[in-house]
Amino acid sequence: MKQKAKARLEVRQASLSDIPGIVDLAARAYKDFVPYTAGEIRGQINNYPRGAFVAVLDDNIVGYCATMRISESIALSKHSWREITGGGFGSRHDPTGDWLYGYEMVVDAKARGTRIGRRLYEERRKLAEELELTGIAFGGRMPSYRRNRKKVTGPQDYIDKVVEGEIHDPVIRFQLANGFEPIGVLKQYLREDTRSMGHAAHMVWRNPYVDRDQPRKFRLPRGVESVRIATCQLQARAVKDFEEFIDNVRYFVEVAADYESDFVLFPELFTLMLLSPEEKELKPKDAITKLSEFTPRIRDCLSEMAMRYNINIIGGSHPTRTADGDIQNVAFVCLRDGAVHEQEKIHPTPNERYWWNIKGGDTIDTIPTDCGPIGVLICYDSEFPELARRLVDEGARIIFVPFCTDSRQGYLRVRYCAQARAIENQCFMVMSGNVGNLPNVHNMDIQYAQSCILTPCDFPFARDGIAAEATENVETLTISDVNLADLSWARAEGTVRNLADRRFDLYDIKWDVGEPHDKERPRAEPIGPGTPGGG
User: Fold this and answer.
1) What would the pLDDT profile of 433-476 be if each residue is shown by its tens digit?
2) Which residue numbers in the chain have pLDDT < 70?
3) Beta strands in 266-372 (DSSP E)
């Protein structure tokens, strides 16, 4: 009996593991354009997984398309590419939208004989038919426009002549052959597209299986997508050695796991207890060097606990020496499948910079978990709204905020900002802080915390936007269930829709993806003792 040969070509839904291949494909295909970042592709997939497809030929990604659902009023109105895609992340996806909008289609030039583009278009069409949507829209390139601009009176005249067969444009002809029709010009759609002189043909395909004069009103079911979260408000205490410290951490991990929590969050710099066995208080720089020596053991122990107790651990933060020799404040996120991720603190506080010479990180991205993408903002980072917006654009619905503050004022800076991030991004924010003191550890004289799980403020959530909170300054574990489906409903049909109502025609956030930044910051001496975190 002959063995069946393995299929060489596959078109399937894109996954996060495809991101490096997609980024590489786009960079090769769009040499004159600003390259995609991994974060943008991550957002496109996370925000609407069903709308992202890849074509794989002989184990190589040779095609990719990204699609989202939007309302007819947006799909058929004038717009630019950055406006409609939320800056390239696909974050304007509306699960109640009546139209599919295609905002990316890229095919490897070496694979064009295998009709990759047609196959990807067919996947979009099948999705629209399955969901009974009104149609598909997009802005199509017109790459022969610049060469032929003297033969026409403008972009609309150019499109008309291409449709009539008087001018050849390979992209528009391909789209016409696939059942799309132009309904106008999108001026300054994509400024980088010099061959199209920035313009695009506004193309639509209407679903022949749908017969209606008015757009269908889709409603998002109030489903249940429950996640149980535990936040540990940890008592700073003297320990005699590393093993005693880990035993304290393990206790709370085990309790959280016994309550079947999906996540447990520890505070920022919770590992400073490891300095307490020192015979005398170390100078700040000596202390941070000593603490960073524990990094491999911290990482290994947290990862082992995550797998053993079947729980995802957000390991607060720990001073870590990076490959370039700098000390950064890093959160180790240890997942129950054995994966370990890192998120550095982007904004060190004045105290961290002055006393410990801690440098800020350069990247912030979502972390994939079995409960969906999450984000981590370490203490002071929560006070910079651009960071939370970046994480939510990439698909995060839960953002964890480990913090370390000495006073109520410092704590409230973090708390109020975290609550604002929950409202403006329609996401859950989880805070965890230290309490107590460490007399033999510099900058850990006193601690103030009231750990909590914060929500948006709308009907599906707690009336005060607080799912749960601890008693202030008491060591405890606070646990609550949150429903991620409530976030989807609020974003699509809530009283206010902060994400959907952003004015991309007026403002946008552009991230610098060039060379690493000089991490040196002014090192003026901070006022008062404060803590390394400080809020």
Assistant:
1) 999 888 777 666 789 999 999 999 999 999 999 999 999 999 99
2) 1-5, 215, 442-444, 513-535
3) 312-321, 327-334, 340-344, 358-359
Residues whose CB falls within 8 Å of the CB of residue 67, separated by 6 or more in sequence, listed in order: 48, 51, 52, 53, 100, 101, 102, 103, 124, 127, 136
Please state whether beta strands 466-469 and 9-13 pair in parallel, antiparallel, or not at all (unpaired).
unpaired
Question: How much of the chain, in percent, has pLDDT values that exceed 70?
Answer: 94
Residue 62, both tokens = 């040779």
Buried-exposed string 363-380: b where 16+ CB fall within 10 A, e elsewhere: ebbbbbbebebbbbbbbb
Whether the predicted model's global pTM rises above the 0.70 cut: yes
Q: Tokens in use for 380?
A: 């002071």
Are the CB atoms for 134 and 215 separated by under 8 Å? Answer: yes
- The residue to which tokens 């291949």 are assigned: 21
pLDDT at 519: 43
**Please, are residues 238 and 160 in contact by the beta-carbon 8 Å criterion?**
no
Which helix (H) or strand (E) segment holds residue 185: the answer is strand 181-186
b or e along 507-528 (b: 16 or more beta carbons within 10 Å of the residue's beta carbon)?
Answer: eeeeeeeeeeeeeeeeeeeeee
Helix axes 38-47, 385-393, angle to 10 degrees: 60
Is residue 117 within 8 A of residue 134, CB to CB? The reply is: no
Residues involved in catalysis: 268, 345, 379
